[in-house]
Every structure is written in structure tokens, then in C-alpha cells.
Amino acid sequence: MLSAGVRRFAASAIRRSHVEEGPGKNLPFSVDNKWKLLAMMCVFFGSGFGRPFLHSQTPAPEEMEGDRLQLH
Fold it and tell me: How far from each other are the two terminal CA atoms of the chain, in whole angstroms?
């Protein structure tokens, strides 16, 4: 008895929940404006690509604590 009720509820919940289908409808960002998409992708991928270069420009610490190697 309980399983039949659960089955009916699951079937009706699936019928009621309709999501738009098609290219770009299941993405967390809009693909309608290609220039906005281009800017977002450049910022996203550029920040990941540029991060090692930005970190290589930061100076190393003068001394390290404890018995570790000391940089001079």
C-alpha cells in the first residue's frame, strides 16, 4: 500500500517538473550574448592561466623558521 502511494507520488512529481531543454539551457551561465560569454571565459581562464605568473613575481621570504634552509 505504501509503495503504491510512493510510486504514484514519484510519477506525478516527475510529470509536474518540466525543465526547459535545448542547447545552453542546463548551464549555470547565459550563452545568449556571445560577447559577454567571451569576456566571462577570458576572465575565468585568464585568471587560472595567469596565477602561476603572478605568484612567481612575489618575493620569497628572507629567512625561514627553524632549521630549514635560509635564503640570502
Answer: 78
What is the C-alpha separation between 26 and 18, in angstroms, rounded?
12
Q: Is the pTM of this model over 0.70?
A: no
Percent of the chain scored above 90 by pLDDT? 25
Q: DSSP for 14-43? A: HHH-----STTTTSSS--S-HHHHHHHHHH
Which three-class secondary structure state does DSSP give residue 71? coil
Cα angle 29, 35, 41; round to 5:
55
Rounded to whole angstroms, how far apart are CA atoms 27 and 17? 18
pLDDT in tens, 22-49: 787 888 888 899 999 999 999 999 999 9
Residues for the chain: how many in total?
72
Mean pLDDT to the nearest integer, 47-65: 78
